[in-house]
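Homework-ish question, so no full write-ups if that breaks the rules, but can someone show me the predicted structure for this set?
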Amino acid sequence: MEFAELIKTPRADNVALHRPFHPAVEGTLCLTGHHLIFSSRRQDNAEELWLLHSNIDSIEKRFVGSLGTIVIKCKDLRIIQLDIPGMEECLNIASSIEALSTLDSVTLMYPFFYRPMFEVLEDGWSSFLLEQEFELLSSVTNEWRLSCVNKEFSVCPSYPPVVIVPKCIDDEALRKVALFRHGGRFPVLTYYHKKNGMAMMRSSQPLTGTNGRRCKEDEKLVNATLRSGRRGFVIDTRPLNVAQQARAKGGGFEQEVHYPQWRRIHKYIERFNILQESFIKLVEACNDQSHNMDRWLSKLEASNWLTHIKELLTAACLAAQCIDREGASVLVHGSEGTDSTLQVTSLAQIILDPRCRTIRGFEALVVREWLQAGHPFQQRCAQSAYSNSKQKWEAPVFLLFLECVWQIHRQFPCSFEFNEQFLIMLFEHTYASQFGTFLGNNENERAKLKLPQKTMSLWSWVNRPEELSRFQNPLYEANSLVIWPSVAPQSLQLWEGVFLRWNRPSKFLDEAEEERIHIIKYNKELQAKVNALRRQLAEMETDEEVQEE
Amino acid sequence: QVEQVKLLDRFSTSNKSLTGTLYLTATHLLFIDSSQRETWILHHHIAAVEKLPLTTSGCPLVIQCKNFRIVHFVVPRERDCHDIYNSLLQLSRTAKYEELYAFSYNPKQNESEQVKGWQLIDLAEEYKRMGVPNAYWQLSDANRDYKICETYPRELYVPRTASKPIIVGSSKFRSKGRFPVLSYYHKNKEAAICRCSQPLSGFSARCLEDEHMLQAISKANPSNRYMYVMDTRPKLNAMANRAAGKGYENEDNYSNIRFQFVGIENIHVMRSSLQKLLEVSGTRGLSVNDFLSGLENSGWLRHVKAVLDAAVFLAKAIAVESASVLVHCSDGWDRTSQVCSLGALLLDSYYRTIKGFMVLIEKDWISFGHKFSDRCCQLDGDPKEISPVFTQFLESVWNLTEQFPQAFEYNEAFLLQIHEHVHSCQFGNFLGNCQKEREELKLKEKTYSLWPFLLAEQKKYQNPLYNPDFSPELTLLEPNTVSFNFKFWRNMYHQFDRSMHPRQSMFNLIMNTSQQNKQLEEDIKELEAKIKQRNGQLDVVLVKEQEQTAHPAPLALKTPPCFQKEQPPMPVNDAVRTIEGSNTADNRYSELVSEFSKAEPAVVSLEYGVARMTC
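A: Not a homework solution, just the prediction itself:
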């Protein structure tokens, strides 16, 4: 297919661009295969806006006489308005945008066409391999092994080719366990707590069904993570009744009789479709400036967004607590093990593991716990909060995770190497990106699409020193402790950087942030200078002493 | 003194507690726990004491403070508990001003320091700074002996054209004699903020002198003929007042006025609103939705927004239209004080400095007779007179500091410290209800002024991000009052609930770094001077050597700036001056390590308990 076929009017002049808190700008609008480009011609005020078609969530058009207006709502929650003279031009442009922003085929997406203007210093596709992770692990314990049982994606289609499992469980057993777990997602290691040797594993639900099927290999596998005489905790992200109902459909949960050393805890986290609804409601509430206080608060409440945040944080704290405080191993799962399970295991690691609070560590976490673990990014991020079409698989599961990280970040502002911008950048790239990183739903699909060969990795770009400097937190001071956040409602805040980003002027806040950074940087400069001067003085003194003698 | 008393964590369900000894002194309640940490509570800060039903571990005693601290003790023996309860009831209720702490408090100042302290804030000087008296405004001696209005200060500024008979006539037509006087003069726009109380208009009464008075005010503004009259009450309340012979100005009777209601609720609504807010925020195991709906139902943020909206209206009338504004409510000492002072704060950057804010409070709140004694319940009195009007003012200012992080010289700690002392009765400034009463109490001789003490430790109250050039003199600050900009003020209402605060304070880090930067700058100067000196006279300096090398290395060299050596997140009062709070919020972050190695986090374990039960 040629993009040109979809573009009936590639260019329109005298278009007015309206954005909240900016004066309207007049200029030329161009459509290309992947971008909507607006450039103002005025000498004093030359500016360009490049918008990826894949970033467009929905468009609305209306006419006043022959002046057409297109309102574009983006997946990063921004809303812009274009006034286009000429009814035909406007209609053409609107229909082109609509077609180009809803392309079905992945291979037509921009990452397959994008040619980077920068030199690749380190190929992000091979920056975070599980083998490296395992090497680190081997230095502290030999109870685990790398298994290539899923090399051909035949045992579990949503797992990566290599996984870490207990050493005493062979591949044959893993194949059997895979048959006993939803989607073949057998328990694998996700985190090893060096401090006390406790492990966190994740899986999907066991397929016990109504007649209480059991699988000896599964029992052996999970028990292999327990120290003798110790108990473990299964954290089930569904409420008990939902887990019970799941049996009717062939699913189920670990029954006490067959897993006597495990104690099951049901910590309910909403399923993805509920989260999408909540996301839409929250964005709606934030976008209406006319709400009086009561209405705003009741809308905020009705969205339930902060409740989800609290529940998720609590579940993650619970998992972390079982490991760090109770000295117990933990197995986390819900139904499929691709959404709430990953939220809990990744957040628990943020709390427990200082390495995950560094930039590279966090990137590794995203790769390991989300991309390789088979979170279906393409389905979940197909549409954002403005989509009119009926939702199928869309949900802000990853955004919710990012927000929880942000909430912890707010409470421990010096413990993270990255800043808020880093999290917002990840949010944007999951929904629309020039990089191939978040395309596809799992490693299997990515391998089939040949993403590493045909597209650029987000990490290749982010980890360049020029880019990294934008994402560094000047207050960072490595903190080797477990960080327990407060989950009281009074301690949680709306993530303004995402939800109010386009709804208020942020000039004063940005300037204040710059001043903060300046104070920290200036401090480092001054310290360096004092040290240098002191050294100089000391040298002069010793010189003098030598002369004295 | 009672031993083996337990102090419970307010929000923990795990019955985590500290055991220690409780002492009662003449002025404070003191709790020392086993690790020798002290919790001091001033008797004047106690708002309510409650004895709960006996439990197996002892007799619970809950103390609620005016600074929103709530402590929960368990006393092993019921008789002790009863004794403490009774003593606290007596000690926290004071019948006479002379028994208040301020009259016994001795900060070791000599008499001249005391006098100088009281002279620190000079309102005559402040009016001069604004540009009055001038061709249009003059100092009136009408109230020199408090003959016209007891609750106004002696010195009042009025339009030159307002003669004494007009003043007298107008005052007779105004509730409590509070006739229109100048509160703030904007010298660039030549427009004024004036304040008064409601007119005694009833359904039809008129007063020519009062009409002349308003005309005089609008004529005193050469740049704009019309003036606004802002009635800060909801229209319904104002209309109801007419039945009692009070009411509001009839636009037909006054020439060139534009009348406007702004709908701020009365002190009773505010009192119960805050009460509701505290009930919600004090709930254990609160869910997000209960918190948000509680926040909504309390109406507190709605009221704060209404106050700030009114101030924005006032400030714009002056800055944009150059129109003078007359503000009143019923008596003109609650809502009027809020709106006038916030309006001036938006208009004039001087009030955004530490000293300027003190002046603003002295002028619009203290001198114009906001009834601090009644509103803050300094003496045992009518509970219906209590109202958080001043707290609300501070919260509005806090909201502005959040929106304009570089516009204010002072920080949140400053606001919290002022709030603390409005209730502490430790200094004379806020005692009594009006200036006349303060003079009768001889406060300036018998007590001390708060301001010099705050100024002496102003380092603690400085905003490290403050940029004096942020807004040039007399440029309007235009806050965005969209609802989502108003937030729950956690550091006020949960100041003492450590578990709710960020575990690392970015603010303190920036503050310390900024102060350290100043120190480093000086060090650099000193070092450079030494090097220069050495270069000049290489061999003469040997004698001074000892001294120079002994110079302590600045802190910075040993440890990088990090939260470990942070001060507590909350303002900690100077221990010498105010014992209250000095050791409570202390060292929270410096103990990060020990805190983590201790028992499980309270909030999580709650959920844990719930989760376990569903197994």
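Now go work out the reasoning yourself. Hint: Chain B has two domains: 2-93, 115-498.
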